[in-house]
């Protein structure tokens, strides 16, 4: 299998490339953390694309149970079919719904299995998957069969650090934290999304963006994905570099700031600092 070096749509740092390839070689789940909007989910999508294999996505919610990743028994449908005299009820396997792990285990080609935002689930959720991710097998009690992986899926697990993950789970993972890109790295990322954006506009936008992220007391720092959205709007509205430069120098709130600032506290903070900068009392 070829090593991962990023794709034309995804700029991966050397450290991230090493982490991905190490996890694949060790056949361990790769646990990815980082600020929201730094490309954690997109990594799995682009890895599958680069390797030419299937991507199986399991997006975790607060109500998600580990068992759902294995399988679910649809007892309600079986009861309904029995009342209707459906012949399917004689075979209980007709009512076993395969979960994302099961799909990954039986795939013909080694797939990429994304377990997205694992920290959203109950604290016991990661522990409930320890055995299955370790042994790559599980038992279906209703049909009395053991499901064993044809080959170990490439497992990518993302977390936004909303809650701590159990030590026993962490021991079984290869870990990488995606650092927020610096200006040079961000310019490379922007180049992927924009063909021929004016350098003067990009320079002023990046300067304003990074100054905004470093604002003392800001609650929600704008992310990479929000920068991309903002740049799209700046280009669409034909905002001049001079307007951005003036915003940066006078500390007034930037044009189309709704793409960058996502709560009223940060907007009010910026307005307050701008007022103080102008010498207001």
Annotation keywords:
5-stranded parallel β-sheet; alpha/beta; elongated; 281 residues; two-stranded antiparallel sheet; 9 strands
Any idea what the radius of gyration is?
24 Å
Shape: elongated
Q: In percent terms, what proportion of residues is strand?
A: 5-15%
Largest sheet: 5 strands, parallel
Order of helices and strands: HEHEHEHEHEHHEEEHEHHHHH
Ranges with pLDDT <50 over ≥5 residues? none
The count of helical stretches stands at: 13
List how many beta strands DSSP finds.
9
Relative helix content: 40-55%
Strand order of the largest sheet: 2-5-8-1-9
SSE-based structural type:
alpha/beta
Straight-line N-to-C gap: 64 Å
Give the mean pLDDT: 90
Polypeptide structure, described:
It is a single chain. This protein is α/β, with parallel strands linked by helices. 44% of the residues lie in helices and 14% in strands. The chain has helices at residues 14-26, 40-51, 66-70, 75-83, 100-106, 125-128, 130-135, 167-171, 183-193, 199-213, 224-236, 241-250, 264-277; strands at 30-34, 55-59, 71-73, 96-98, 112-116, 137-140, 145-148, 154-159, 174-178. The strands form three sheets. A five-stranded parallel sheet has the order 2-5-8-1-9, with helices on both faces. A hairpin with a 4-residue loop joins strand 6 (137-140) and strand 7 (145-148). The radius of gyration is 24 Å and the shape is elongated. The mean pLDDT is 90.
Write the layout of secondary structure elements.
Layout: H1 14-26, E1 30-34, H2 40-51, E2 55-59, H3 66-70, E3 71-73, H4 75-83, E4 96-98, H5 100-106, E5 112-116, H6 125-128, H7 130-135, E6 137-140, E7 145-148, E8 154-159, H8 167-171, E9 174-178, H9 183-193, H10 199-213, H11 224-236, H12 241-250, H13 264-277
Parallel strand pairs: 1-8, 1-9, 2-5, 5-8
Antiparallel strand pairs: 3-4, 6-7
């Amino acid at each position: 299998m070829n090593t991962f070096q990023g794709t034309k749509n995804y700029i991966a740092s050397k450290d991230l490339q090493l982490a991905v390839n190490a996890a694949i070689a060790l056949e361990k789940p790769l646990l990815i953390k980082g600020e929201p909007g730094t490309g954690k989910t997109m990594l799995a999508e682009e890895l599958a694309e680069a390797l030419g294999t299937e991507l199986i996505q399991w997006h975790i919610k607060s109500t998600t149970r580990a068992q759902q990743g294995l399988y679910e028994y649809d007892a309600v449908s079986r009861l309904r079919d029995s009342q209707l005299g459906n012949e399917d009820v004689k075979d209980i396997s007709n009512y076993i719904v395969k979960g994302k792990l099961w799909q990954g285990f039986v795939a013909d080609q080694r797939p990429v299995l994304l377990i997205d935002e694992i920290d959203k689930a109950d604290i016991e959720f990661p522990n409930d998957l320890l055995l299955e991710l370790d042994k790559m097998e599980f038992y279906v009690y209703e049909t009395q069969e053991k499901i064993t992986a044809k080959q170990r899926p490439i497992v990518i697990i993302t977390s936004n650090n909303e809650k701590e993950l159990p030590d026993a789970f962490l021991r079984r993972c290869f870990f990488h934290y995606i650092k927020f890109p610096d200006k040079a790295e961000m310019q490379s990322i922007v180049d992927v999304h924009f063909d021929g954006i004016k350098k003067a506009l990009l320079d002023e936008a990046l300067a304003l963006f990074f100054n905004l992220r470093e604002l003392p007391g800001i609650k929600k720092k704008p992310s990479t994905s929000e920068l991309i959205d903002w740049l799209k709007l700046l280009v669409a509205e034909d905002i001049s570099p001079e307007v951005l430069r003036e915003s940066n120098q006078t500390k007034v709130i930037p044009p189309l700031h709704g793409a960058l600032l996502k709560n009223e506290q940060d907007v009010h903070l910026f307005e307050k600092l701008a007022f103080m900068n102008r010498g207001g009392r």
